[in-house]
Structures are given as structure tokens and as C-alpha cells.
Amino acid sequence: MMSESDRRARVARLEAFAQRAPTAYRVQLALLAGLGFGVLGGAVVLALGLSVGLVVVLLAISPILLAKLAKVVWIPVAFGWVVLRALWVRFEAPSGHLLAPGEAPALVAEVERLRRAAKAPKLSGILIDDELNAAAASVPRALGLLGHRHYLVLGLPLMQLLDRQQFASVVAHEFGHFGGGHGRFSGWIHRVRVSWYRVLDGLAGRGAWASGLFERFFRWYAPYFDAYSFVLARQNEYQADAMAARLVGADVAGSALVRVNIGAARLEHEFWPSVVEANRREGEPPRGLQRDMAAALRSRHADDDARIAKRLTARADVHDTHPSLAQRLQALGVAAGDAAPPERSAAEALLGDLLPVLEADFSDDWRLRVEDGWRERHRAHALDSDRLGELEGQLERTPAEAVEHAALVERLHPHVDAVPLYLDAVRRAPDDAFAHYRLGVLLLARDNRAGIDLLHRARMLDPDAGDAVNEVLAEFHHRHDELDALDSVVGDQQARDRLRRDAAQARNALSVHDTLLPHGLDDAALDAARASLASTGKVGRAWIVRKHIDGDPAGPPHFLVLVKWRGLVFGEDAALQRMVDALQLPGSWVAFTAPNQRRVARRVRKCAGAPSYRHGQA
What we know:
EC 3.4.24.-; transmembrane; 5-stranded mixed sheet; metalloprotease; 8% strand; metallopeptidase activity; single chain; alpha+beta
């Protein structure tokens, strides 16, 4: 895949091209998207044509030969069906509280006023959800052939954060997406990307013979298409900001951007940490979450100015379709002034009697979603507190207890510096992967590069920690703009992902080249498998072997189960599925019958020896 430096250079080049020749840029993007759909559509036609051709040829040779090779004919048909399903991308309407007729008339009137001013299409509905965000959603009918349904999604926290004018700026911004045709064209571009990923997932899951060819094309195609479509998304944001400035004024649009950044920082650094702290104290989640959130968003904080100053210096990432705050303010031609909390929020001004209803409903929904996990974490916190008390009451701790103590202090007392504790834990437990990992994470958070070696050591001690280690290293190298090191980490992670994908595909495939081993089941596991096979009443004999999975030696064991039916079985596929559902084995497994895989069946019998199960055996 494309390196980070190459991606940045390509995006910069395309942004300059799009500004210099916007029409040519959009034509090229449309052609590139058309190429993607053309390859997918051509694959469907080719697959179906190949099937028809095979039928004609085999029928001309011998109808009996056609009957014998019927499954061969269906292979390209199945391939074409996977691709065809991927092309039909279904987009659901957004979720949230859909305003009913007569609800929040002031809000509806304000939205309609802005819609007309922006010359945006009519809405199919206005939804309110519990996010600090707003969105313009266009849902295509029949891939857009029958038009689109347009929805405006408004976050209640956003309405509580902003005053009425700032909120109008956000709505105007979203209508800028609608009015500029972004929803339709960008939606088509998005469907191309989604279709490709669905094709690759479908083919990989089936082990399709053409998946490698498609993947090679996609590796070439995806970097170009992503870079081209990324530039479009960035342009859309600037144009939507310009719409907001035209309808409500650039100063108001700028103050809304600053307020949204303040609100996001407030939730991240104060509100949600306070909820986590409440979880430690209280056994039940709070009832008025939305009310408490609104109070937090509308208050002042001593760190607000410093946080905005930090965000003004942050650069836009080439993976984030939204420009940076500084870039957006510069495009508007305004400075980041003082964005004080509103005396009266847009929610209070526009929602009327619906406001307390939404606050209560969203709070209740949140409680239902989190209450089980909340209680479990509260119980775990109490146990952790007791255990920490025990450890701190001991005069001496073992190396394992030193690691446990450091972890408990870090988890229960986040304001305490845990680095000295982990340093001691690493010294006393030099082979503990967790201690090395956590110390590495904490040091890199302080920009102490000694954490890099600690993370590599953690991965060496525990190869399963590779994903977590790569995530931390990628964030660190990205933050410091170290592109070569970042590319190395990303490449390693992609290799790990490929091994996992290949291992998952190997678990779903049967081949005469598979490496087969004795099942290795202990008596209890073998008895459980035999009992589950007997419960179906249809299995006469079964042979169980273990399959070696390349690239996943530490993963769960994988078994092949060869089944011979007892008597006649009508609907073999259904019977085999019932047997698979009933079977109990400590890992994953694939079951099959000899007529479907004769060569594999011979190898399984040879490896297993005597049947692992016989009907009627004790």
C-alpha cells in the first residue's frame, strides 16, 4: 500500500490540481469511480458468460458429462453472485428521534428558512440524536436510480452547546452539503469504495479462485481512488463553510467552529472522565446524563483558551476529511475570538417543551445501554480496591505482585504517577510483557523514546501484543511526523492482518495440500464430541483430525470432521449444518462428507486411523 509520505505528496498534488482545474478534477474522479464499477460489472458479465459457455460446451459433448460437472459450472456463477451482491450497497436511514408533525415548530421553521436560503432539496425528515455533531444524510433509492431521501441529523448536545445564531451556522453548513450536490456525487463515490471492500471480503470468505486477482487490482486502484476522493471530501467541507458564512456571517460561522472544538475538548477531558469516576463510586449509572452534559458544555473552564490555542496549531491529517480548525478559520477570513458560553442555548430557544422529553429519553436510552457494564465495572473496581489494599499492606511483594500493584495503582488512581512503579516492576519481573508494555506506553506519552524499546521487548515476550504495540508506535511516530518509522509500523501491521486473514480463510477451506495431524483431544473432549455426534441420530461414523494452520500456530485448534451418514439422509446440506451446530469441539472445525471431497477424505481416514466415533459405541 502507499506510504504515508507518498500519500501526503499525492493529496497535496491533487488539491492543487482541483483548485486549478476543478471541472477536470471531478471528471477524472468520476472516470476513476466508473473504472471501479466497470471492473466489478465486467466481472459479473464475464462470470455469467463463462457459466453459459461451459453449459453449451458440455451439453454439446455429452449431457451426462454436464450432469457430472454441474458443480464446476456453478463456480463462476457463485463468483458472479458475490460481486453482484457487493454492487447492491444498501444505505439505511439515519437513526435518532424523528420529529413528528407539530413537534418543535420553532426548530422546523428555522431549518426550513435556512433550507430555502441555501436552495437545498426538501427534507424527508429532521432527526435529533445524542451526539455532539450534525450531519446531512442522503439515502439513495435503488442505488440512486429513483432519487434520494434527504435527512438532517442534529445532535442535542450540539444544540445545548451553541446559541441560536451559531446553531444556524451549523445547519447552513449541512445544507451546503445538500445544496452543492455533495450528497449525490459523494454518495456515489462512497458506494464504489464500499462495493470494493465487500467484494474482497466476500471472495476471501469463500476462498474464491479470483480473489487474488481482484486483490491485486484493488491494491493498485485503492490508493489512487482514496487520494482523489479525499480531496473531494475536503473541498466539500470548505464549500459548506462558505455556505454558512453566506447565510449567517463569517464571524458567526467561525465562533461556531471554536465552540464545537471547545465542547469536544470539554467532553473528552472533563465530562466523560467524571462519568468514569462516578462509576467507581456508584453502583448504578446516573439518571440525568444529558442534563449534566448540557451543564458541562455551557460552563467555562480555565483550560478553554489553552485548548483552543493547541487546536489552532494542530495540522490536518491526510486521513481526516475535515480541514484543521486553523485552515477553516483562515478560509472564512476570521480569527478565533472569544467564544463564550451562550446565555440561552439553541436547544432552549428552538425545542420548547420537547427539550426535557429528549433529555430524559436519551438519558434513559444511555442507561439501558450501559447499566450491565456499569455494574460489572463497579464490582470490578471494588474488588480491585480490596486487592490493592491487600498488596499495600504487605511488607514484601513477589515480582508478579509488583506488576499487579503497578497496574492497580494506574487503574484506580489515574492522577498518581505510575512510572516509578512500573520501572520497579520491570526490574523485578524482566520477562513480564504487560509491565514492559504499560511502561512503554506511559513513557511515549511523555515523548520519552525509551518507551520504543520497551514496547518492542513486550512484543518479543508476547507476540499476541503486536497489535496493541503497533497502535501505540503508529500514534507516536505520526505525532512526531516520522514517516519512515510510521510506514514500517503500518507495514508490519498489514502483514499481521494478512496472516490473520489467510488463517481465517484456511479454516474455511479444504485442500489435499492441508497438513493433517492426529486430533490430540483428551478423553473428556473426545467424549463430548462423541456425545454431540450421537445426539443427531444421523451420524454412522466420523473421523476427526487436526489441521495445521500456517501463520496462526498459537490460535485455537482447527479440526476436520469427515462424516458418514447412518442410513439415507434427505437434504444433506441441512443435515450437515445441524450436525455442525450440535458438535462440541475445543476450537473451530469444518465437517464434510466423502462424496464431496474424496481425495481429502482419503487423507483424513489415513491420518485418523480408526473412526473417532461409531454409532452405538459406548
